[in-house]
Design brief:
There is one protein chain. 13% of the residues are buried. This protein has two domains: 13-76, Orthogonal Bundle (Arc Repressor Mutant, subunit A), CATH 1.10.10; 81-124. It has a two-stranded antiparallel sheet. The chain has helices at 13-26, 39-46, 50-62, 81-105, 110-124; strands at residues 66-69, 73-76. By secondary structure, the chain is mainly alpha-helical.
């Protein structure tokens, strides 16, 4: 797993770590029961405070993406398909809101947007 951090993105570092781990889980780069790097080793690798990594791991555990076993480490939790679906629906909703805002500025109709979606979905078949 390769995590690349950006100091200029405006997104807190712990959230960047959290997002990178979620993406690795969604893409199956990290699979159920895979062990994550220890908090200290990931912090050393990324050259950041271990408290930042700990915060990311705590958030991921609270959301059900990882589980931590005292004395053993942190592992990818069994996939909760409903949790993954909800996360992806939220991501799609954010994109649709951006599409809506751009379409209003550019005076693009709802029908034109629907046509674009129809074309995109037809190309996938």
């Amino acid at each position: 797993m390769n995590i690349i951090l950006s100091n200029s993105s405006g997104v807190p570092i712990f959230e960047q770590i959290e997002k990178a781990i979620k993406e690795a889980i969604f893409s199956n780069e990290l699979k159920e029961e895979d062990m994550l790097p220890s908090v200290r080793s990931l912090a050393n690798e990324l050259k950041i405070s271990f408290l930042t990594v700990k915060r990311a791991y705590d958030e991921l555990e609270q959301q059900g993406f990882i589980k931590t076993i005292q004395g053993k480490g942190s592992f990818v939790a069994p996939k909760n398909l409903e949790l993954i679906k909800e996360e992806k629906l939220k991501e799609i909703q954010d994109y649709i809101e951006k599409i809506y805002n751009v379409s209003k500025i550019a005076n693009i109709s709802e029908d034109e947007i629907k046509e674009l979606f129809r074309i995109i979905f037809e190309e996938e078949i």
